[in-house]
Design brief:
The protein is α+β, with helices and mostly antiparallel strands and 145 residues long. It is built from four helices and five strands, in the order ββααααβββ.
Amino acid sequence: MRSGFRLRTASNNLYADIYLYDSLSSGAGYADRTSSYIEDIFDKMKDILSDCNCNKSCPNCLQHFGNQKNKENLDRFLGLDFLEFVRFGRLRTKVNKVEEEEYVDKLNYIAKLHGIDNAIIENSGKYYINSNKRKKRIIILSINV
């Protein structure tokens, strides 16, 4: 069995379509039978992604032979966010301090590649864009769509 998804908009709403299909040429009927157990499958997915103790992904939660070329892009926390969106239409918009620091580090790295040092600075737990000797406060939100 194989799967995929697509994100689409309609009437100012965002939808996630998940599709499952039999990968055998004659079709074994697994995808059709899955619909009867979809809530149980979602619950098990949540358990696997939540209970793993890895940093982002590992063979116990997300990695397998079929996605080995993309394993550096796999993130069980984003998977949990996506599952929450698919099931309940909720998007996580708050990030923790560690995530904020990771985002700022990545943005500062990109800026440094363009010859700009310390494009984003922290002062008293708040982040500012440091541009033209002016500081403009920024707020980091996570919207994984």
